[in-house]
Design goal:
The protein is of the alpha/beta class and 211 residues long. It has a single domain, classed as 3-Layer(aba) Sandwich (Rossmann fold), CATH 3.40.50. The chain contains nine helices and eight strands. It has an eight-stranded mixed β-sheet with strand order 3-2-1-4-5-8-7-6. Helix 1 links the parallel strand 1 and strand 2. Helix 2 packs antiparallel against helix 9. The structure holds adenosine-5'-triphosphate and magnesium ion. Adenosine-5'-triphosphate binds next to helix 1, strand 4, helix 5 and helix 8.
């Protein structure tokens, strides 16, 4: 089994996430992509985020009908601050071949993560290029702290000293972010077509993100 794990706040999940997961799943022949909403994000601890149950429900609605996509409540059930390291280790034990799907914006800060050096011993990474900030390429995508542990083996493929791979992957660039959706909703503006209709309806029904 080759499984992808796609973690995030998903506040809310949107078409950028969904299309990215779909493309990566197909390109890397993943059997399943698990969407894993964070319970308490280490980096957004002081920020207000929507209820866990709402974020989870929106994911469930969004991926319904796609047999390659699953929802995982592993971080919710574990409680406390959610560390990707713990999640990765559990998936590795269960499935062996794990691919951590992540946007370059999040990956470029990996040196601030809990046990970030060890995480590379337990999972491969698929780093998706996003239209935010500078477009870093090649070895420049790695924070200085871990550059020395990476060997470039092809234009977009790197190998960690552990033997695990890091793939830099171009995907259809959808300039959609949850932040943008929350801002629009707050101003009572349309969020239509940025996320699945069922999720849009859920947000309206529950009155999420309103000013
Ligand atoms: P926020 O604006 O609140 O930070 P977000 O849209 O970045 O939300 P997150 O839940 O923070 O969404 O992101 C989860 C993962 O999805 C991260 O790895 C992020 O890089 C990736 N991601 C988010 N939006 C896109 C997009 N439009 N295309 C590809 N990847 C994305
Ligand atoms: Mg983000």
């Amino acid at each position: 089994m080759k499984v992808g794990i796609f973690g995030g706040t998903f506040d809310p999940i949107h078409n950028g996430h969904l299309r990215a997961a779909e493309e990566v799943r197909e390109l890397f022949f993943l059997d399943t992509v698990y969407f894993i909403p964070v319970y308490i994000p280490p980096h957004k601890r002081d920020k207000f985020i929507a209820d866990t149950e709402d974020r989870a429900n929106m994911i469930r609605l969004a991926i319904k009908g796609n047999r390659f996509m699953r929802f995982s409540d592993i971080e919710i059930k574990r409680g406390g601050i959610s560390y990707s390291y713990d999640t990765v280790c559990l998936f590795e034990k269960k499935y062996g071949d794990v691919y951590f799907i992540i946007g370059i914006d999040a990956f470029s800060e990996i040196d601030t993560w809990h046990r970030y050096r060890e995480i590379f011993f337990h999972t491969n990474f698929i780093v998706m290029i996003r239209p935010v900030g500078l477009k870093k390429m090649g070895i420049e995508i790695f924070p200085d702290a871990i550059k020395g542990e990476m060997k470039q083996i092809d234009q977009n493929i790197f190998q960690h000293t552990s033997g695990r791979y890091i793939y830099l992957q171009n995907i259809t660039q959808l300039d959609i972010s949850s932040t943008k959706i929350r801002e629009l909703a707050k101003e009572n503006r349309s969020i239509r077509y940025l996320l699945p209709e069922k999720v849009e309806n859920y947000i309206n029904r529950r009155g999420l993100y309103r000013g």
